[in-house]
Structure formats: structure tokens, C-alpha cells
Amino acid sequence: MIERPLLELAPDGAIPWVELGDFPTPVEQVDLGRRGPLWVKRDDLSSPVYGGNKVRTLETLFGAAKDAGATRIYSTGAFGSNHATATVLHAPRVGLEPGVILFPQPESAAAVENLRVILKSRPETVSMPHWSFLPLSMLWTERRDARRGVRASLMVPGGATEVGALGYVSAALELARQVDEGALPAPARIVIGVGSTCTSAGLLLGLRVAAELGLGWTEPPRVVSARVTPWPVTSHLRIVGLAARTAARLATLAGDRFAFDRRALGAGLEVDGRWLGGGYGEPTAEGRAAIRTFRERAGFELDTTYSAKAAACAIDRLDARPTLFWSTKSTAPLPEVTEADWRWAPRRMTKWIERAQRLEA
Asked: How far is Cα 295 from Cα 344, in angstroms, rounded to an integer?
């Protein structure tokens, strides 16, 4: 039987779910010297196969796909997508064939490493020249697979749907239990990177659900979402909208007491765009400084695209009140990849890897 806090609120089988992660993930305190302590929720350790925040959302998204009879599941996003990496590594564990529909992004070491791992798994692959082709590519892929007799499920970037967000509703309840158990004080704020909005929306709702249940806190911690993708993707309106739709879905499953409206949810969210820098995938000086700080003080690595920018925001927010940084980028060792593992891929992808490797050199 799968044990997740959210599943205890709904009738058995009401929320399709698969087990991918090792939960609860630990909470640690990082000493930052004169800046004071920072609490860290180590979702980077959510699975030894591939950790990070995507594991929680894939548990619900894979569950829904299998419940609908799908045999193949596609992740969509950028070439170096953490979501796509998690999908190709975890989908076969629950009997799903992985597929990816990807577009180019700025080159970085972490992005290139992810794409190599994605291609090593030889998923069904669609390579696009630009993100604007995504809706058409998804439609074409779905129709092509249907003609071939393949029942496919296609996830939007980051799995940012009500189903995906339920994974982080459960994560918030997990954290509230850790507060009640004395693992950490109730945080005044939780800082997390926001790219596709799924994690932030689920967390925003879950913190309020915990307060409604009398877990962890009476007043929910404030969610501070540090942008790693630009407005309007990461607008306050979009995050709150997804949280409200997820609340409506949860209310049908577990009772009207969880039907929080946009106003109540929106009051608990702040979107901080100061850390985005030149855009998605573009490193920042503040992010690089955060990487060095976490390497020296916490003993684990951040990445320039996601976690470093959010960590820089968390460090900036430190004061006398407890601050929690939610670590969302996997720190699990990735499979070794040889050149032969990715040379089969569409030419657009191999040229992108070649260009990135020249820049690394």
C-alpha cells in the first residue's frame, strides 16, 4: 500500500498514484554564519534513481496515465528538462514507455548532462526548433500515436496540471508533520524556484490544507517563488489559478472544507523576479555565489538554471524568522553516458550537444 499524507484524506483509489520516491525527505539546517541558519527540505534526495521535485508530481501523473490505460507517456519542455530526465528514468519502473517532445534552450553543463541521459534511454523523441511549436507538436504526436495504435498520455511542461499539483499538496502535509514531530520550527516563509508553476501551486494549496487540518501551523508559511522562467509563465495569477483549480479538484475528492478560493490562496504567495537574470537557463552571479555557499556549507550541489537562483533568493531573505529553502534539483548520481548513447538522436539535438561541449572546453 502506498503511504502518502494526501491519500489519507480521500477514499481508497480516488486518487490514482504510483510509488516512485523515498518519502519523507529529510529536513536539514545549514549554518550560513552571520546570515543565520537556513532550513533545507531535501527533495533533491527524493529518489536514488533520479530525485528532485519532479518525482512527486510524476507519482500522480503516472498514476492518472495508467488509470486511463496509457502505455506511453510524454514529457514536454526544453532540451535539458529535469521533468523529461525524471520521466525517462522513472516511467519504465511502473510499466510506461517514455517519450519526449523537446525544444532548445541556452547551453549549460546541467542541461547538456540531462539531455545526454534522456537520449541514452532512447525514448520516442520529437525535436522542435522553438518552444512556440509545442502545441502543434503535441497534437501531431498524439494523432500519430493513435494511428499506430499506441495509447499515449502527453504531459504539459513541468506537469503543471491539477493532477500534477496534488503531489506537492501531499508534500506540504509531509512538511507539516515534520514540524509537529520537532524536526524543524514552523517556517515563516518557504522559498522555492518556480518554472512551470506546478510545484509552487501544489505547495501553496497544501500549506493551507495543513492549517485547516491543524497540522504544523495555524497560519500557513508564506510561499516565495523565485522565478527561473519569465513572466507571464510564472505570473502570480497563473500560480494562484492552478492552485485554485487543484483546490476545486481536491474538494470533490476529500470534502468542501478544502475548496479554498483564489483570494485566500493568493494572500500566501509572493513571486520574486529579481533572480531570473538574463532569462531561463542563463546563469547569474548571485546563483554562482549560492552554488559556492551550498557546496561549502551544505555539502551538495545546486544547478545554475533552477536551484541556484532559488537558493540566492532564500539567502537574501534570511532574518530572525525561520526560512526554509525547498531543494528541488536532483543530486542523485546520473547514469554514465557515452557518445554512442546520444549520436542516434535528431540532428538538432546532436548539434546542440556538440556546441555545448565546445563551450565547456
From this structure: 35
